[in-house]
Structure formats: structure tokens, C-alpha cells
Design brief:
alpha+beta; binds ligand H2B; 96 residues; Putative pterin-4-alpha-carbinolamine dehydratase; four-stranded antiparallel sheet; single chain; lyase; Pterin_deHydtase
Length: 96
């Protein structure tokens, strides 16, 4: 099982991402896409990455604003898996 990151490790890992904030055992990023179809397309790309990683974000879609939340439920905290997928989500969002 993936190791839980300590507070300091998690805070440092967040600084290497773009636009993510940490709230305890969860990190999140909200992005406003140009349109609703763009938002759905981004979510679909993230879905493929999540399946490939076998790690899945909570996703909130409101018109063209999408929030991704990550936590490793099985470990009960933040792990490298969250930060690896967050970095991939940055790749999707920053390419729009
Ligand atoms: C068996 C499989 O690896 C687990 O159910 C995975 C699937 N996706 C997951 N996603 C997230 N975010 N946390 C998990 O603990 C998790 N567990």
C-alpha cells in the first residue's frame, strides 16, 4: 500500500503542482474551462489517466468549472499516488 505523506512532505509536494490547495487529507484544484464541452473533454481525459493509474479523483462539474479532489482512501491520507495523478491532471488542464 502507498505510504501516507507527512504534513511537511505533502505541503512541499503541493508547491510543485499548479493551482492545487491542500485541505488535510485532500488536495484540490478548480479550473474554469472555456466551455461546457471543453470541461467534459478534460474530465474524459482525466478519466482515462485515472483508470490507467487505478487511482480516481472526486470530480465536481458545474457548467464549465470543474473541481478535482484527490486523496488515497485506502491509506486514509495523501500519498504519492495523489500527487502523481494531480501532476497528470495539470498536464490536461494546462493544455486547454
Ligand atoms: C483496488 C483499487 O486499487 C482501489 O480500490 C483503488 C481504486 N481507486 C482509488 N482511488 C482513490 N482516490 N483512492 C483509493 O484508495 C483508490 N483505491
Amino acid at each position: 500500500m502507498a505510504e501516507i505523506l507527512h504534513d511537511q512532505q505533502a505541503d512541499e509536494a503541493v508547491t510543485k503542482l499548479s493551482g492545487w490547495t491542500r485541505d488535510g487529507v485532500t488536495i484540490e484544484r478548480t479550473a474554469k474551462l472555456p466551455s461546457f464541452p471543453d470541461a467534459i473533454a478534460a474530465v474524459n481525459k482525466v478519466a482515462l489517466l485515472a483508470e490507467a493509474a487505478d487511482h480516481h479523483p472526486d470530480i465536481d462539474i458545474r457548467w464549465r468549472t470543474v473541481t478535482f479532489r484527490l486523496s488515497t482512501h485506502s491509506a486514509g491520507g495523501l500519498t504519492e499516488k495523489d500527487f502523481a495523478l494531480a501532476s497528470q491532471i495539470d498536464g490536461v488542464l494546462d493544455a486547454v
